[in-house]
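[job 0417] fold request received: Integrase catalytic domain-containing protein
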Amino acid sequence: MKNKDKSSSSLNNRRRQSNKRFCNFCKRFGHNIETCYQRNKSAVSISAATVANTESVQPMAPVSAKSQSSGSTFTISRDDLINIIANVIRTDPRTGQELGTGPRVGRMFPVDNLRLPLVAPVSVAAAATASSIPSLALWHARLGHASSSRVQQLASRGLLGSVSTKNFDCVSCQLGKQPALPFNTSESISTDIFDLIHSDVWGPSSVSSIGGSRYFVVFVDDYSRYSWIFNMKHRSELLQVYSNFAKMVETQFSKRIKIFRSDNALEYTQYAFQAVLHSYGTVHQLTCPGTSQQNGRAERKLHHILDTVRALLLSAKVSAPFWGEAALHAVHTINRIPSPVIQNQTPYERLFGSSPDYHHLRSFGSACFVLLQPYEHNKLEPRSRLCCFLGYGETQKGYRCYDPVSHRLRVSRNVVFWEHRFFVELSHFRASLSSSSVLDLFPDEAHIPSVTAPDPPVVAHDSLVDFSVQPPDLTDPFPSSPFNEQVEDEQVEDELPNPNPELGSPAPAPPEDLAQDIPPRHSTRWIYKIKTRFDGSIERYKTRLVAKGFTQEYGIDYEETFAPVARISSVHALLAVAAAQVYMQPPPGLSVDSNKVCYLRCALYGLKQAPRAWFAKFSSTISHLGYMASHYDSALFLRRTDKGTILLLLYVDDMIITGDDLSGIRELKDFLSQQFEMKDLGHLSYFLGLEITHSTDGLYLTQAKYASELLSRARLTDSKTVDTPVELNTHLTPSGGKPLSNPSLYKRLVGSLVYLTVTRPDISYAVHQVSQYLSAPRSTHYAAVLRILRYLKGTFFHGLFYSAQSPLVLRAFSDADWAGDPTDRRSTTGYCFLLGSSLISWRSKKQTFVARSSTEAEYRALADTTSELLWLRWLLTDLGVSTSSATPLYCDNQSAIHIAHNDVFHERTKHIEIDCHFICYHLVHGALKLFSVSSKDQLADIFTKSLPKGRTRDLVDNLKLVSHPP
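[job 0417] inference complete; emitting structure tokens
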């Protein structure tokens, strides 16, 4: 009984204690928050969902609750197990299977069947605290975003404590540290020679070679690995070098280069170079920007050549200016060395199909003795000269040797080599490289073989003093160069005319006479100029003696300066001739008495009055042959004979001669050659930047080369193209956008575009718009210029076509855009003239006054068109074109046509009365005839406003602007 009471009392005590426990989560008695079923149920569902979404759970496998490390078992209490399971996954999220089971023994739960993921076994307690173990990603961030391999090394050494080994991805490292992807080794080889040519340009060298070169270009055949190298003074020479190389391939191997691979250097992407590739049908493969590895074979060949050049220069102990000859020597030998890339064959053997000959090879820089020509020595002087061997003749079967006495390269087959001694060990000459000319010492009658002499006794000699010479630093081959600035190389000096072109030899009309020193006088200078052809190649070298006219003052040194040139619009009058005597100082290089000055007898470059004096001299000279200047273009000279008409058009000192009297043309050229220094350039192909192409159908005029240079200057060679030069319904204003900080580029581009309209009438309106803001250009104006350039890029080869079958009948179109300028509401006039189907004159201009109606704007445009029409009729009459019938003038405004035909004027036409009388007068006298034309057929529409792309394309076709790629 006592025991029963005692047991009952204990139960009541437990109940009272249980009732005292209160759960703050579910607000009930009998348990606390740790054992709350509602709380644990919610926590388990949230924890399981969270872990299932964030962890990669693997399939479960039953394991023993026995510890594998110590072999001991473990038990946990119910509350602890509930607490653990509340924070750990209870079931496999993939299968729904419970993690473990076990019988209840009192308040304990021995677990004998626990399922864990297929990873290294861990204890349940460790699993409960897994979320607190730092991950590799966390240590990666702590260590300043070190690489994952470095973090794993530290973790494996136990320096970071317990670390989760789960892999991770770091977006920040990917964005901030991503390197360029490695390039796969190219194992492919072309199947035939010249299927693929690799090329690259090296330079500029800090030291010019003895030939004046600062660059070299290498061409590598992909199939044979044979290399060709060419030294160049300037990158611009690449065009001529490649043209010659392509012709050599076609002539010597009867092949054409199929694919040409290079980087994106300017010399490879310029228009002229691309035109040459297109003419041969060669595909040009360019590397991606900043990815020179795609041109790896050419790059590797450059490294190979330069490594060999350095070794040759060091072994021969010669100075840096010999690098050009060393490069040629290196390529000559590399082409004869087996290569594992081509199955240990030599490039020479792969290209020519036969083994090369090695018996002619000699050591670079070795001492050699060249047999002198009989006229170079007398009977008691040495018969040979010690020289430095540099390489092998390119066009002659001989050796290239440097002569330290004459400072020239000798090419000779009569050479004795001392290959055991270098030239610098034997030479006592102090060389100064002053010429790169080659002396051809290769007599045809001599047949003395080259031999290698036996070893002579060793004798001590003075070493060769360094004979390098620093040439002048000229980077651009084409600008003018004054006399007192050194010429870059001796080739240019040899090609240039005598610095005293007319002073040193008799001339029919000497330009100067020496006189006593009479002030004032003008100083002079020599100017050298390299003339180029339309494809960029060098045509000739030119020398000019100019006076420093920038020191002259108006009213003191000169008064009249006007000189007519061939005009596009009009020149109606000539100023009175007022010749004035001019004195100047003797030119540099002319030795005369210091008290003497020169009296100018003919026109001289540089003086303000020089163009005027030149034109007066030319016109008076040609008049002796019966030529007369046209009354309507003072630069047009003509002569009519029984055999036909001869025409001469003069633009400063360039001229075009044409006509149907062939004997008269020959007589004219002979006469001009006797009177002036003149060069006959043959059939017209390039004149004042215009490229003229002849065909049986007619003439094609373009400025593609000029447009290409303009795009390069604006750095738009890789830009996208547009279909129209002006954006539709867009008007420029003086206040739009932000002011340009440096407007010089804008002004240069607009000036170039103005000249480009000579053959591109389709951009006349657009250029007219942007040229109005040269004084204060803004960002919107510059954007309009860039749009014009992008339009030009898409219509690169567009130009005028003058048909040979076109009838010589003049037609005119007149149009106006009323109040089109939003700033001042002035109208825009546009007109064009066609001789048959050939466009010969056009204009887009803003009207001077504000028109009060569209009729007034159209009528003012008619008046301007009539003025141009009259001048063209008179000019065509001088050219022998019949203008007896009235010229049709087309206008799309009926009111303007009615006013022109109505000879009664009233207040509505009073403000344009002068224009009305002007048009009516010539209408009555039969100079013109007005016709109505629909707006669809109005060709002058393109000169007055922006148009949609379809309309622009139609007008371009109707104006005979055709594309004619080379």
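[job 0417] notes: The CA atoms of residues 409 and 727 lie 61 Å apart. DSSP finds 25 helices and 39 strands in the chain.
[job 0417] exit 0
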